[in-house]
Amino acid sequence: MNEAMCPDPNLSSAGRATPGQRAVAFLQKTVGALHPAYFALVMATGIVSVDCHLFGLHDVARLLFGLNIMAYVLLWLLYAVRASLFTSKFVADWFSHKRAFGFFTIVAATNVLGVQFNVLAGNALAAEALWWAGLFLWIACTYSVFVFLIVQKDKPPIEEGINGGWLVAVVATQSICVLGCQVKPQLLGAGDFSALFLLSFWLFGGMLYIWVISLIFYRYMFFRFEPSDLIPPYWINMGAMAITTLSGAELIHAFGEVPVIAGMLSFVKGLTTMYWATATWWIPMLLVLGVWRHGVRRFKFTYDPLYWGLVFPLGMYSVCTLKLGAVLEIATLARIAQVFLVFGLVAWLLTFLSMAQRPLYAILLAMRSGSRTIAVNLEEDNNECERE
Questions:
Q1: 334 Cβ contact partners less than 8 Å away, ≥ 6 residues apart
Q2: Mean local confidence (pLDDT), 120-131
Q3: 212 Cβ partners below 8 Å, 6+ apart?
Q4: What pLDDT score was predicted for residue 72?
Q5: How many CB atoms lie within 10 A of CB 143?
């Protein structure tokens, strides 16, 4: 028989998935299932970068800054693709008690990146532009997520619906205050109104924390608690207080002599110290619960994008402790902050390597599967040719 009549080994035979079908399946598995909270990657990388800069690790800080810009742009592209190709899943997330608050990571990530531009690059113009973008995103998220969850008819019970991820709304709110204190947006003016505007975000963020943590604590104490319930965003219990501490310290530094802040300076200092003490209280509690989850109950540790919500609080605690030490003039706090810088760097590196391992494993698996498929096709085609 003529060799030209034998099937081309490079062509897909009937019944086998085409490259287009494999591409669609890959998109559905990755982009389609993309968690709304993935911008926590930018939050974590940004705050660890700023922390490194404050402690003189400028090369590491700049490296993380470059990575963060790329991650921020890439995530926006992925979210845009998900919104256009997987619209139903994207919309459903806005009405989900478990996933909706993940969108607040976009707000916090935008402002953390703005802090990087301001502190590392000295680019106040880009930082202010990101602050206005963050403010717009905060308004959009606040008055959509909360409203959508309030008005829907079918709601989950509290033990299924609430988790530590809700506190990302507090982090987003306080991030407006932190970056605003640094750039002092011109349209707000540099006087009392600007100070009052940012003070309002700080105070509301603290009030929002009280509302949400009360529900979380109620869920902790009066409902069955399994290892699977202790998801990584529960570290935001501490992280939300850490960024609230940083907001208070930035208010004192930026507007301490403005009458609206100067008149209540003792109140702001006292409340800021209380927030730091609350964040500190959470650390051993979360560590003990982590040991119970993975050590006692043997819950398997696998990469989850939500683990970036664990890295961010460690970096934020270091930065807020350093800033509070400067405000209160307590040198010991700087040494504590330095210890948590190490913890934050280690946690970031481990999470990043775990994340990088997944696409690498997928590529290697695809190459292995592809080589096997080609070999099988060649063998089948050769056998068929021999029979004919």
A1: 321, 322, 325, 326
A2: 95
A3: 162, 166, 167, 169, 170
A4: 97
A5: 10
- Sign, CA dihedral 335-339-341-344, equals negative
Q: How far apart, in whole angstroms, are the C-alpha atoms of residue 155 and residue 300?
A: 30
Q: How far is CA 38 from CA 78, 106, 281, in A?
A: 10, 8, 27
Contact partners, residue 138, CB within 8 Å, separation at least 6: 104, 107, 172, 173, 176
To the nearest whole percent, how much of the chain has pLDDT over 90? Answer: 64
What is the distance between the alpha carbons of residues 279 and 145, in angstroms, rounded to a whole number? Answer: 26
The model carries a pTM of: 0.85
* Per-residue pLDDT tens digits for 132-176: 999 999 999 999 999 999 999 999 999 888 988 899 999 999 999
The residue whose two tokens read 């290697």 is 364
Structure tokens at 252: 């004192």
Buried b (16+ CB within 10 A) or exposed e, 254-283: bbeebeebeeeeeebbebbbebbebbbebb
**Residue 360 burial by Cβ neighbours in a 10 Å radius (0-12, 13-18, 19+):** exposed
Question: Distance between CA 181 and CA 198 in Å, rounded?
Answer: 7
What does the CA dihedral 275, 278, 280, 285 come to, rounded to 10 degrees?
Answer: -160
Per-residue confidence (pLDDT) for residue 33, from 0 to 100: 82
Q: Residue 292 belongs to what H/E stretch?
A: none
